[in-house]
Write the structure tokens for this entry.
Amino acid sequence: MKKKLNYLLFIPIFSIVLIFGNTSCKDETDCKMEILVKNFSDTTVVVPYAKIHIHQNDIDIRGNANASGIYEHTFALEAIVNVEAKDSIITDTTVTPPAYILLIGEASIRLKPGETVKKTIFVK
């Protein structure tokens, strides 16, 4: 009799453990992108605070890289996007207004679900 009682207690406890222990993991669908902006003439030099423009069809995102030349963004779905990086350098401060050179770099990035895609863009 005692053995039957142990089996009867085991069944509900086992069922509860099975129900709560069998949770399915949600697939990671976020697509992360990390862009590093570097100078084309000297590829060891990063470009801090470069302007970033991500665009493709109805996607239009603008931002700035950080002091290390890195820009990060997360998308909800996978996509292929065009990325443009811009920076300007003062070339002549003796004239008013100062003369600037605009540096531009472009790339296409394919975003993958659950992954961080890293891309280096060289501005020239």
Q: What stands out?
A: The mean pLDDT is 86.
